[in-house]
Amino acid sequence: MRAAWFEEFGAASEVLTLGDLDAPQAGPGEVLVRMHTSGINPSDVKKRAGSFPNLLDGGFVIPNSDGAGIIEAIGDGVDKSRIGERVWVFQAQYGRRFGTAAEQLAISSNCAPRLPKNAGFDVGASLGIPVMTAHRAVFADGDVDGQTILVTGGAGRVGFYAVQWASRAGATVIATASNPEDAETCASAGAHHVVNHRDDDFAKAVLKANKGQPIDRVVDVEFGANLPVSVEVLRIGGTIATYASTEEPKPTLPFVRMMYKDLTIRMIIVYAMPDSAKDHAIADINNALKEGWLQHRIAHTMPLDEIAAGNEVIERGECRGAVILTIA
Q: Which of 19, 33, 207, 280 is the most exposed, having the fewest neighbouring CB atoms within 10 Å of its CB?
């Protein structure tokens, strides 16, 4: 099968190899997927660059966790009716070496949910990490109907979906954006208010948007950098649900202030989500796809042979939407 892989860490153009590998076989509980698309996420790029030093201990790695395709074979214990299903794939390159940047993928049947007919394979490759992360960040602590939620980076890959989940569920959404284009994107996704997180009066603007009242929840793309504002605007008993802290990877917590507000910090990563949370996300995602209301942004589509260029697009941080590789 045609595939991309890397055997050492480094720049995409230097370490990513394209060629032929032996095709996998579906083991017990697995499905064999003929991949049509593969999504490149920031975490995939970071792994290739060396963020997990032990990643290559078992040998070369085929990158990318998200993708979509058609089941062409099954392993023992999987219903034969699954053969021929269109599916979206998540968590392919987690705790294992073989991801979606290949013509074929053997993976647990649970990680290959059915892809509704009205959703393209490009959309399918956009769902795993960003949409499931956003779902968990919004719903990890229950129903948000009637709450006010601040989504930082509302035009980002995860924030864009968080705005949609929260607003659709009945929350009042305040999103942040630093330019008119991103502000329009947030509004189109369902944000009721948009504030500029680069303004000196960021916290004041958030409270003003909520009629002077503190908010219930922050879905946060930059935990450390935004922490002073989050503490300022949250109500007593509020929650910060965060999935990244790139600018401040080792943030200092204002412990006493947070303690007196009885704040909860919830860390979000798809890989560590409970199975019940994954099932909840999958069900809601597929219902949203069937109903046709979930918006997506595909920033770049390119063939598998251009995987290095796709990695470089992600690294430059210039695109807001998904970067998708076409395989079949």
A: 19
